[in-house]
Fold:
Amino acid sequence: MKEEKKVQNYVMSLVRMLISVIEEKDPFLRGHAERVARYAVSFSKKLGMKKWDIEKIYLAGLLHDLGMVYMPYEIIQKPGELTEEEMETVKQHPIIAEKIVSKVSVLAEISPIIRHHHEAFDGSGYPDGLKGAEIPIGARIMLLADTYDSMVAARPHRSAIKPLEALREIMNNKKRRFDPALISDFVDYISSIEGLSTKKKVSGDKDALREMIMAIVQRYQKGDIDLPHLPKIVHEIIEVIHDPKSNVDDLAAVIEQDGVISLKLISMSNSLWYGGIEKIYSVRRAIPRLGYRETQGIVTAIAYRDLYEANNIHYKLLMEKLWLHSLACAFAAKAISKKMAVGDAELLFMMGLLHDIGKVPLLKALSQMERQVTPFHIKDVLECVEEFHSRVAEEIFHRWRFSEKFIDAAKMYEDPQGDDASERMVSILRLADRLTQDIGYGLSENDTGEAHFIETDSMGLNIDNETLDAMGDEIKKVMRNAAHLF
Structure:
């Protein structure tokens, strides 16, 4: 079992390396590959395909455009239509990609899917003009997913089209390009995830929004939509920190596997907030300056920064506010814990960072669905998401195998009842949340950064407002000096 896990880790490390090469050529290609892989995998599950076949389709989806790395930059970024000669050049990319992956033994089995993902059911595709059942089923699925995502995402030579229009276009070509046996199921699948099942626009009122969010939560709970995954590096760091025999070298060895996180951690150690007189240039020297356990929280924050993204401009801004709010709340919870000498300061940092994590997948799902619905008022979005996010957060924490103590405290944040220690931690987290809003890092349009009186006694805490004001000033300094480093 351990050997199998090692092979899987090796394969994914290799795939990630190849994806980084793709992204260097064109950042769009990575996002496109990941979306195509997700569409293809989820659709394959709906079809009841075998686990190994689905895994092959997933890897093929991530690497299907690997051959585009060898395409001339002027073709990839050309704003107008391609000439016939340029199109012939582009048609070589499945062949190039197949040659690359077929040389890697653990990836050889996905090469037919990659080579034939542009074959058409009537034989008019490329590179080999295969038709019907001659085309691997994985390639037929990949063509649907690839075509759909290519249409709903903007490119230099054209604008994006709406999901409903894309599905209509696919339906219009069902007798030529696509497997007729897959079309109906694929359209139903996309319609379900895009909220198109009614075939009409959804009203932008609050009741409709609430129903949409409830449906999203149910799909998450059923496993129809993937929840965020715990990054491998965070999992490994948690294991090292909980190992009583581990030391700084062990922790540094894990972090150094990721070059981007290593560089950001070093930059953090040299920031005005953490920095000393001497400049630091290595992870091994950064860890003692930051703190052994504090490094875990910082790496977690760096690793999860990319989760707070959305294509929809309104939700993109909201995600940015949510990220800054979560980070500020993490720093505030830690500061309050230290000031009061209550609770585990580093655990409270993690709780502050992740207390709103359930909102992230809900907002992402809404941002995708609002391509087909009347835009909702942000105030209504925040109120409805606030109502349901704890259910999603609990699913996430269970999947990440967080401790029961962490999960219980997260539950208490929404429904305060439990032992005195947990109640104390939740009170600190609630105060941190309120303080964060008052210094201008809240989500509401009314959070302007104008501090006002906080009734701490009602939270079971005894901190005077002068102390809170001083803490607020310190948190603002941290955010100004360090937030951009994550």
